[in-house]
Design brief:
Distance between the termini of chain B: 48 Å
Mean pLDDT of chain B: 91
CATH topology of the largest domain in chain B: Rna Polymerase Sigma Factor, Chain: A
Number of strands of chain A: 0
Number of helices of chain B: 9
Order of helices and strands of chain B: HHHHHHHHH
Number of domains of chain B: 2
Shape of chain A: flat
Oligomer: heterodimer
Mean pLDDT of chain A: 60
Distance between the termini of chain A: 103 Å
Largest sheet of chain A: none
Helix content of chain A: 55-70%
Shape of chain B: globular
Chain lengths: ~150, ~180
């Protein structure tokens, strides 16, 4: 009966026991690699001070409702203007691109922060001569025409 | 829950918000940093995102309704900020988000703030090759050891979907590492 204990009915894959150590080591090594990223010395104590210095505790940000309304009204006006102004077809596409970028890259809070003047004079200046291809290229380069000061007449 | 409500109120109250915010910062900065770092890979980027995250938390605390824990809300902001940084940078350099991350991982060997060995770099490379959602789920489950319920709240995906994502991610990583 005791001999039955030694009958090896169960098999293991070839070299299983030789490879087991290696496999286990690999698994343990991977566990240890959870913290391979390092930070500069004293980073966490310094970053606290940096973040706190960026916050003005006396002035919690509140965005009055009329600023949302003003921003929304300006955006609607701009949309109507560019949609129905057939005399500026080339500029329309350019402006749509710029507007799309503006809406994509700014949060509601940031848009609310910008006043109507920002929208009508700085961003959507229909008299400027930048063409569609330039605007598209600038968009691909993640720059807005304003940043590159291309509106200046030379 | 009651103590969380009290803490949120302290964060919203101009009289107490400075000390409450300092506590929030002390309690969560490291956890958020490591979460962000695994998404953006480089320390400098993680530093930028961490700062932006806390500034946004402060700016938007009045809009926090308490429907989730502040911890998951902050993780959500940190995740969005990290993904936005990748999106902006990859767009700027005209590459895809995945290519951007793979480039970052390929430079890990020479990164002074990374001391992993070859196996670790292989692991990071494999993780970098995952689609964005799977990469996030894998990082949060494997490295951060977060519960599926919490990940579900942060990523807005069902637990079942997360389990499937994690399963696929692990399979791909194993295959990649064993190649």
């Amino acid at each position: 009966m005791s001999d039955l204990k030694n009958i090896k009915s169960f098999k293991v894959p070839h070299n299983y026991f030789n490879d087991f150590d290696k496999k286990l080591k690999g698994k343990i090594d991977l566990e240890n690699h959870k913290s391979d990223f390092k930070v500069p010395e004293n980073y966490f104590s310094k970053v606290e001070a940096i973040i706190l210095s960026q916050i003005n505790f006396n002035k919690t940000k509140t965005v009055p409702i009329f600023r949302y309304l003003l921003g929304a009204a300006a955006a609607i006006m701009a949309f109507i203007f560019i949609t129905f102004d057939t005399s500026a077809e080339d500029n329309t596409e350019t402006t749509v691109l710029i507007l799309e970028d503006y809406l994509m890259e700014n949060s509601t809070y940031e848009i609310a922060d910008h006043n109507a003047d920002y929208l009508s004079f700085e961003m959507i200046n229909m008299d400027q001569s930048i063409n569609y291809e330039d605007a598209l290229e600038l968009r691909l380069l993640n720059e807005t025409p304003m940043n590159l000061n291309l509106f200046d007449d030379e | 829950m009651e103590s969380q409500n009290q803490f949120i109120n302290a964060l919203k109250n101009p009289e107490t918000q400075a000390s409450a915010f300092a506590k929030l910062l002390a309690d969560y900065k490291e956890r958020l940093y490591w979460h962000i770092r695994k998404i953006v890979i480089e320390h400098d980027d993680a530093d930028d995102v961490l700062q932006n995250t806390f500034v946004k938390v402060f700016q938007n605390i009045n809009g926090f309704k308490g429907n989730s824990t502040i911890y998951t809300w902050m993780y959500k902001i940190a995740t969005n900020e990290a993904l936005n940084l990748i999106k902006k940078k990859s767009k700027h350099y005209g590459v895809s988000n995945e290519e951007w991350i793979e480039t970052k991982v390929s430079r890990l060997e020479s990164d002074s703030y990374f001391d992993g060995d070859e196996l670790s770099i292989r692991l990071q490379n494999a993780v970098a090759k995952l689609p964005e959602k799977q990469r996030l789920v894998f990082n949060m489950k494997y490295f951060d050891e977060m519960k599926y319920d919490n990940i579900s709240e942060i990523l807005g995906t069902s637990v079942g979907g997360l389990k499937a994502s994690y399963h696929h991610a692990v399979k791909k990583i194993k295959k990649q590492i064993n190649e």
